[in-house]
Amino acid sequence: MSPRRRRIPLGSPLHLLLTACSFALAGYAGVRLLADDWFGVALWFVGAALLHDLVLLPLYASADRALVRGLRVAGRGEWIPYVRVPAALSGLLLLVWFPLISGSVARRYRSATGLSADGFAARWLLITAVLFGASALLLAVRLRRATKQRPPAAH
Questions:
Q1: Alpha helices of 52-119 — where are they, by DSSP H?
Q2: 71 close to 83: Cβ distance less than 8 angstroms
Q3: How far apart are CA 104 and CA 108, in angstroms?
Q4: Among 39, 128, 115, 117, which Cα is nearest to 83's?
Q5: Is residue 90 within 8 Å of 128, Cβ to Cβ?
Q6: How many helices (H) does the chain have, and how many strands (E)?
């Protein structure tokens, strides 16, 4: 019996080329990012990871658990994704744009860009309303289709 040779699972040549290019770009960005203040950048990454893992993850996991439990108790378990998705997207936008939404860096933003930081909170609220409105509309369409497809009850 000849021993079986194992093949290393490789993707297509295009996949390998794109992977190599992404590693090269990440390496270039890392060298540029760490060139000036490598300690500050490393400290920021460690702090961000700790903040996420120790504070944010328990917060949004608890909120999601409460949402799921509340909707299931109310008999609306099918609504979970229609609340979860817009809430997650709104939360992500808040996390990314929080300094501008809160106004804590308005002066620095104006000096760096020459633009006003006014309106970020209103835009975030508008985007959040649109996300939840679109989700509610999709849920309404789904529920309407489900009621039309149900056969009439026999008496």
A1: 57-73, 80-102, 106-113
A2: yes
A3: 9
A4: 128
A5: yes
A6: 5, 0
Q: Do residues 120 and 101 lie in contact, with contact meaning Cβ atoms separated by under 8 Å?
A: yes
Q: What does DSSP assign to residue 12?
A: -
Residue 86 in contact with residue 132, Cβ under 8 Å? Answer: yes
Q: How far is CA 28 from the centre of its chain?
A: 26
CA gyration radius for the chain? 24
Instruction: Tell me the C-alpha distance between 59 and 65, whole Å.
Output: 10
Which pTM does this prediction carry?
A: 0.67
Give the type of residue at 103. G
Distance between CA atoms of 3 and 17, rounded to whole angstroms? 32
Q: Of 118, 112, 63, 122, nearest to 87 (Cα)?
A: 63
User: Tell me: the pLDDT tens digits for 28-82?
Assistant: 998 888 888 889 888 988 999 999 999 999 999 999 999 999 988 888 888 999 9
